[in-house]
Amino acid sequence: MTGIVSAALVAHVPTLARAEITPDYQRTLVDAERVLGDALRASFKPDLWVVVSAHWVATFDWLATCQAVHQGICVADEAPNLIPGSAYRFRGDPEFAGALVEAIRSAGIPAARNDSEHYAWDYGTFVPLQYLDPAGEVPVVCLPSVLMASHDECLKVGAQVHATAGRLGRRAVFVASSALSHVLQRGRHNWPTSERMAADRRFIDQLTAGALDQVIDGFTDYSRIVGAEMGGRPLATLLGVARAMASEVAPIAGRQYGEYAQSSGSGNAVLLLAGPAGLALLQ
Fold it and tell me: Does the domain at residues 3-281 carry the CATH identifier 3.40.50.10300?
């Protein structure tokens, strides 16, 4: 099978970047991303990661990284004291990225290439990938959260990601790097409110049970209740990918790795979505 063979939600809170600054209650997220990455690489043998990050923010256009090699130093511009400079090197996939831009445009949605040789990754991209693929074995194409995009537009772009991967014969894993609840407060030990945690847990339970239609139908209300990161755009793109997968390999269901964890009032989880055959590979 080609196309998106699995889709994942991962956490990127900046204190995950370095072991010496990761609180004990967030270690579950680091461990989960390591276990998930090992499982994905061993069982699915992907030839591409497609990552949408809550911390690469575009205003108008859906951009795709078209560089042949991603190499640089990641600095968290909002927290350089936490991520002052971490080196990374991954291959890109210019053919896929260029084809995805054209596919998004063909759907009537503004899109553009990111060919800049000076472009550096945001930490929402870097942090989870250092655990999912520590040796940089699998090529990467990155997408932003687009401020002008509605949830419906994000769903459509997710469908184009799956279609493009299938058309080009890629076995790709889609990765949404985002928190769930994201109404922040100072004090990284703080949990979301009980109402937001309950909504997050319903969302997780519905996704892992494969209730995609129910999740999508209630997504705008959920996103508003929890103050979802970047207005829920990375999550909506994940749902678009999952819905496109389900049209071919239904039923889609999921698995949570590690525990739900807090960070400054946000709720964070690591989840995998796949079809029956894919989930069976991970037993």
Answer: no
